[in-house]
Amino acid sequence: MNCHMDYRAPSDLLAGKVILVTGASAGIGRAVSLEYARHGATVVLVGRSVNRLKSVYDEIEAMGAPKPAIFPLNLESATVQDFASLAATIDEAFGKLDGLLHNASQLGERVNVADYDLETWASVMQVNVMAAVSLTQALLPLLQAAPNASTVFTSSSVGRRGRAGWGAYSTSKFATEGVMQILADEHRDSTLRFNSLNPGATRTDMRRAAYPDEDPAVLRTPAEIVPTYLWLMGPESLGVTGEAFDAQPPRH
Ligand SMILES: NC(=O)c1ccc[n+]([C@@H]2O[C@H](COP(=O)([O-])OP(=O)(O)OC[C@H]3O[C@@H](n4cnc5c(N)ncnc54)[C@H](OP(=O)(O)O)[C@@H]3O)[C@@H](O)[C@H]2O)c1
Asked: What's the whole-model pTM score?
């Protein structure tokens, strides 16, 4: 298994780096954004809820890390122009982007395909796949302007093996793995790297929605699974591209 849960990052691992995280307002994206900042990165926080983004911003500022940036965006309704405007803002402020973590996702319904509402299916695909493709397109020039940028797509165990009742979410994660592999192949001769990362069962709102009867205390917290997120943005992963990673060993 491709996992770096025991990785201990030096405190200056990401000094001077600019990293964009989608879904930075809650759950895993929030914890990873805080750790990227703690390790020296300037983090561009993208999410829907301005209040929740502001609370991440305040926490980063309070720890004395580089001043982050907030860019509120609903990935379900965002247009190509919205992504271009995000890219222009980053270009103006930093002139490059060293890291891109596609983390925001929608769970959709937990029902069999036969009963799945197709509008919900389409919006899950929009947020989880199309928005990530469109955002990557808009940000590619800035990633290319960085010395060796890393893009990480968030996957899931149901993006690697289909499972009953996971409909659009599972389909979107298979597509995510595909987009990651295609980009890695298209940029094999460059310094850009593209990989996928499955967080595994983690104590967040999404996990609670997917497994309402589960005791959250048995799950790892977002803060505990951060090491592989750091490893994939740091110099140890230079040259690694097109690979699927896990942030924690599978639970038995
Ligand atoms: N938790 C797990 O056990 C688990 C397991 C496997 C994979 N994953 C994956 O890990 C990633 C993070 O999951 P999580 O558990 O941390 O989820 P979460 O707690 O539900 O957080 C999801 C984040 O995505 C953002 N988001 C959702 N819809 C959005 C939209 N339309 N536009 C912009 N932002 C949007 C949310 O922003 P707002 O709050 O601002 O709306 C929030 O910051 C996801 O890709 C998920 O599929 C999680």
From this structure: 0.98
